[in-house]
Specification:
single chain, mainly alpha, two-stranded antiparallel sheet, 10 helices, 2 strands, about 5% strand
C-alpha cells in the first residue's frame, strides 16, 4: 500500500513538471535560473538591460606601475629627441629611480649584463650617435648602482628627488625655448610633451 502511494506521488510530480514545461514552451519562455553578471579578466562586466546583455568596460586605474611606465617611455623619448636645450644627463638618475621593477630586474640580470657588454664593445670600435650615449650610460648606472641608492626607489625621498629633477628639466626647457609658443613648435613639440608627462607623473607619484 505504501509503495502504491509513493508511485502515485512520483507520477503526480512528473505530471506537474511536464505541464509547466509545456506551458513555458508554448509561451516562448524557458524556466531557467537567472544568470548572474559575469566579469572577465579584462574588466568587462555583462549587464542585463531591457534588450538583452551588453558589455560595459571599466578603465584601469592609474596605478604606480602604470605611471612608472609612462615615466620610462617619456624619458626614453626625451633622451632621443633633439628639440630641447635642457641638460639631458639628469634623465639618467631619473630613469634609475622611476623605471618599473621589471625593467630594473632585467637590466641587473644576465641579459642586461650581456647587453651592456656588447654595447661597450660597439662603443670602443665603432661610432655611436650622441643620442644613444644616454641610454647606454643609464644601463651602466643601473647595473653598477649600489643597493643603498636603488633602495630609494618607491620611497618618499626617491619621489622628491624625481620631482626636483623633472621640475629642473621643465624649467630649463621652457626658459631656453624663449616662449611657450616656441616650445610647441614642430621641432620641439615632442620634447615638450615628454617633459610635461615626466613632470605630471612625478607630481602624481609624490602625492
Amino acid at each position: 500500500m505504501s509503495s502504491l502511494s509513493i508511485s502515485t506521488a512520483t507520477a503526480f510530480s512528473l505530471f506537474q513538471t511536464l505541464s509547466l514545461f509545456t506551458i513555458s514552451t508554448a509561451s516562448g519562455q524557458a524556466l531557467l535560473p537567472p544568470v548572474p553578471p559575469s566579469q572577465g579578466n579584462h574588466g568587462v562586466v555583462m549587464k542585463k538591460n531591457r534588450r538583452g546583455f551588453g558589455a560595459v568596460c571599466y578603465s584601469a586605474p592609474l596605478t604606480p606601475q602604470n605611471l612608472q611606465w609612462v615615466c620610462t617611455v617619456s624619458s626614453a623619448v626625451l633622451m632621443l629627441s633633439r628639440g630641447t636645450a635642457a641638460q639631458k644627463s639628469f634623465l639618467v638618475p631619473f630613469f634609475a629611480l622611476q623605471a618599473p621593477t621589471s625593467i630594473i630586474s632585467w637590466i641587473k640580470g644576465e641579459y642586461g649584463a650581456w647587453t651592456a657588454f656588447l654595447a661597450l664593445l660597439v662603443r670602443l670600435f665603432f661610432f655611436i650617435p650622441g643620442e644613444l650615449e644616454l641610454p647606454f650610460v643609464a644601463l651602466l648606472l643601473v647595473i653598477v648602482a649600489p643597493y643603498q641608492v636603488m633602495n630609494l626607489r618607491g620611497t618618499q625621498m626617491g619621489a622628491i628627488v624625481s620631482l626636483l629633477i623633472a621640475g629642473y628639466l621643465a624649467f630649463q626647457h621652457f626658459s631656453r625655448a624663449g616662449s611657450l609658443q616656441r616650445a610647441f613648435d614642430q621641432g620641439s613639440v615632442v620634447a615638450t610633451l615628454a617633459i610635461i608627462c615626466i613632470t605630471a607623473v612625478s607630481c602624481l607619484l609624490f602625492i
